[in-house]
Protein 1
Amino acid sequence: MTIDKDETTKLYELSIYYSKIYRGKISIIPKVPIRNLNDFSIWYTPGVAGVSLEIAKNKEKSFDLTGRWNTIAIVTDGTRVLGLGNIGPEASMPVMEGKALIFKYLGGVDAIPLPIKVDTVDQFVNVVKAVEPSFGGINLEDIESPKCFYLLDTIRKELNIPVWHDDQQGTAGATLAGALNAIKLVGKSLKDIKIVFYGAGASNIATANLFINAGFDAGKMILIDSKGILHPEREDMDKLMLNNPWKYELSIKTNKYRIKGGLKEALEDADMLVAASKPGPNAFKKEYIKVMNNDSIVFLLANPIPEIWPWEAKEMGAKIVATGRSDFPNQINNSLIFPSVFRGALDAKSKKISDEMIIAASKELAKYAEEKGINENYIIPSMDEWQVYPRVAAAVASKAVEQGLAREIMSWNEYYEIAKKIIQESRVSLNTLIEKGVIRNLLNYNSV
Amino acid sequence: MEKGIKFREAKEEDIESIVELVIRLKRLNEEFDALLKVREDIVEQTKLYIKNSLKSDNSFIVVAEYNKKIVGILKAEVRERLFYSPTKEGFISEFYIMPEFRRKGLGKDLLKYSIEKLKDKGAEIVTAEFPTQNKIATDFYAKQGFRSVISIHARYID
């Protein structure tokens, strides 16, 4: 589609144009009043020493007496940035800044972009451990697979603050939310659903695992990577065991009927397809959709162009189609998940973000859409339905309490009110800064 | 032992399945060192090797069978130790279990079963060979009371 290419080129140019003008997307602004220099005797020395002494006595107080409670780091080594591959930490900065902007705008979270230059996974782990005292949480971002699995597992274990890898958990959570409502709409049950995962990278491996934890039958799942259907007898199983144990584990747990071959064989009688492979169009033959069960559900999550066009999937008989894009119905987007998951985890001062907390987020997202009225073209809220964020945050925080992970225990309503207030304030402050001209409003889509 | 799995000595008609599992094992070894790259005629070589082994009186192959399918193998032989005592050694050269049957204690049982057979054949000690870098094998044998006694070191000749 040439129209799309042109549009992308135009957006590239606009983004470069405005990056030259604004020179970065976020900055640090004070949140305390300074009337004159005398006030620094409170905010800085000598007064501040009293605060330091308090924290020295009890490190937990760093969450109450400094901004740590609401500050997270967005850490990347720049090895798999968007679809651009290993472009390095410097080049990943624009993306991390953008992520920080979303964190603040949708979740009220202060997120510091932190691309790092590391050569080994041990170095990566050590850097994150070293910065732990400054942050209330860690968001790992754009790290190549399978390294990202090892890093998430290891850092999650080593740190006492929530650790999250958005490309795994964010995508998995958003996909689950959409799947829950889609399955409800077609009147099938989780346990009976036969799902095919096309693509076995970070997001689909995390999604398959989250689906299993959410009650789907692993035996009825089929995963497909670039070499075809995964099954325990495939010739490269031992190689996978050594190099990608996460994929190996799923190969053993899934596909209990031992179906072999490729996408076409897998889709026979399948109820749902979750494609997260390579950008389309024509990433696979649209005709394959025909062999799926009645009322099939097709998620085409490759960006910027879905594996096949959504209308093609519909023509081939798909009942419900979702993509990663905002210009088609049913956008499966991480941004529906990560700002509010962190909002909830931070407000509950949770020690970690468990799979159950992610599932709670997905269920709340699904419930919100259901209350508004779900249909084929509305299975998941869109990003601008901003009432959903505090609700998801409250669901996540409440689950943390239920699991004994929360250190700040409150009721659902209290969490909801706090999240709502913080997110609202974040928007009010942004709008105020724009109104006052402190943030110059120069955006114009026709400037290049 | 895992339900429905039984051990027995290999027969002529098992050759094809055994060859497949031995080749899987060699391809796994390939992952550990560049000097363990499998040769192009591995299939023929392995067939010959297994056929000869089944004919030999000193060696045997035990298979683990599930639903009439071979899911694990262990090949061993009794050999004379020329310089050391004890003088009779039971040597395990091939040991492979299919992925989905791992971590269920099957390997431990198969080893135990085979060691009994080696003992019947007069072996006083049991030895096993595997790539140095295979940490899974190292840990497994260590757990079964094995220790490293002799190692093979290699390099290219320029």
Protein 2
Amino acid sequence: MNSLIVATLLLILIGFAYQVGWSRSRQVAPAGGRLHSRPNYHGARVAIWALVPALLILGLWAFFSDAASRAFVMAQLPSDVRAMGGSELAQALSRIEQIATGFGVVGEPAPYESAAGQALREFRNLAFALVVAAAAGTGALGLYLARRRIAPRLRARDEVERVVRYLLIACSVVAILTTIGIVASLLTEALRFFTFVSPIDFFFGTVWNPRFSTVGAGTGEYGLLPLLWGTVMIASIAMLVSLPIGLMTAVYLTQYARPNIRNAVKPVVEVLAGIPTIVYGFFALVTVGPFLAGIGDLVGLDIRATSALTAGIVMGIMIIPFISSLSDDIIRQVPRAMRDGSLGLGATQSETIRRVILPAALPGIVGAFLLAVSRAIGETMIVVLAAGNSPYLRLNPGEPVSTVTVTIVNQLTGDTDFASPQSLVAFALGLTLFLMTLILNVVALFIVRRYREQYE
Amino acid sequence: MNNEHAEVMEMHMPTEKIVGQTDLYSIKSSTVRTPDAMPRPIRVKAREVNVFYGSKQALFDVSIDVPERAVTAFIGPSGCGKSTFLRCFNRMNDTIEGSKVTGRIELDGADIYDGSIDVVELRARIGMVFQKPNPFPKSIYENVAYGPRIHGLASAKGDLDRIVETSLQKAGLWNEVKDRLHEPGTGLSGGQQQRLCIARAIAVSPEVILMDEPCSALDPIATAKVEELIDELRENYTIVIVTHSMQQAARVSQRTAMFHLGYLVEEGPTDKMFTNPEEKRTQDYITGRFG
């Protein structure tokens, strides 16, 4: 309700300020002469000058209101309650909060609670009115000052453009700050984990046996290598499946297919990319796994239904559209002149593709490959369902394995105590995963960028 | 000629005497070699060639003879069908979606659109140089060796080296690149790249070389070098060149064919075309009245 009122007031302020700026600039326009900026820029400039101070006041209040309310409530409380401290005080404060918001409390409120709650509500209403008045006042002041400066030579357009630029910078900063925040939280939690287990044991340990914290004391063993091996094995199988199929699909679609076939096939291939990974997961579990196990029986190999092979193959299928549409774009960027030059020398179509088009597109394809690998490494749902969750170092892809992502899921689902190494290890694993995909992405971007320069 | 053309001719019909002709002639006479006196045997013969892109007809009933070891130039305003016609000679139009060619084109008496003709072999006999230099993103050596490799022309490494060297020599590029054969071909200047493309075409020992505006992306100095090269190459090769520049046609060719709106307007010895054309439209185009 309150925020609705504030938003409405702000909108009115913006509209009014814009109007004021617009009409004032028309007034000051010299007869027959010209304003430096058109009236709509003057309007926008005044609106910005009115809006920014008002928003600042509101932002400050949003930032400090909790601390202010708390200080106010504490001042209302009898000294014995204030002296309680700890969880009892916190409980009292939350009861008062609930009384103040009209939410109600369990049981009969103590007289001091009701009084404090009532006072808090009044305090808040008053504070809100004051803040809105202050915001409106500063907004009006900003508007007035901005209006006074309007003159024919005032460079309102430049000012507005500058503000637009700051706005855009602010938006992109949000993404960057989020990334930094995620990395920071991963890092701090991972560091907490490393107070329990030494990084050497973690990164070079070959046994993964964390034991559940509920079972009893003892921290267990946290060797990363079995998980890393599982991840690498499944990602490798996935790439072995997806790279040839995806690349050849792209070659067919760009070089051989007639437009009507291309228009029909391309969307169908891309539908694969839209299937939720959990669906791939049970496709692997229910169909591919038993099928592979059956084939294994036929040829005398012991292949388990849930294994690195099952998960890898299905993940490969999932990545095909990723590879094919990236390679498609890259192959199309190879100039037609290359192709004509080769065909004009009497090369066949497949010679042209093999000897000219693919080599020319190679850096881009490598970039696409690395991006796909980082997807394969981070993929979770398929491996949770189909890889068998068995964190042992095994060479045979027909055996179940576990991966970094699966282990993170295992460690963080169910009852978790975020102070135990059993949970904290998830952050160390996440950090490892993040670093791996980060490096792959950086390398991929570097390669793709170098490739782009080649034909410009 | 049909009505449509009569109209176009009227539109551009000059009423006063031709101007600019003497200028053009002075350019030509100062640079070109003595034209052939002897008639040469016919190498490529085209009869009533029509080209369609989808439902649109780009070329109408074009018939022409291309003499051996001479330069034949195709001139005409943009969109007149000269490049389209050139691309019929090595069937490069096949690579364009929805294109259709009718009529006959004979190379040494055999119809190149006959089902028994192998396009790969045909393109080895009729080389092509494109408008924009298009070296492959490989080394200079590999660019020239590309054709011989795919056609298996060199059995030993030494043979390939020799082919690369002679091709680059014939293209007048050897001295400029002999010390950096293994650097990328894309690192050369525009004019050098175009001569590299010519060397690449020569390396498969073609009989005919098609050039599609080979100098349009080059500066005047590089253009002069390529023109000089074309003049040398006609000792051994039959060359067909499409050009926008009438001076270029006058400088390098022995025969000229003028195209307009998909029709062959006129064709004959270059000297005659530039001094005494039969068709008014040729005269108008040559003197810069349209196009």
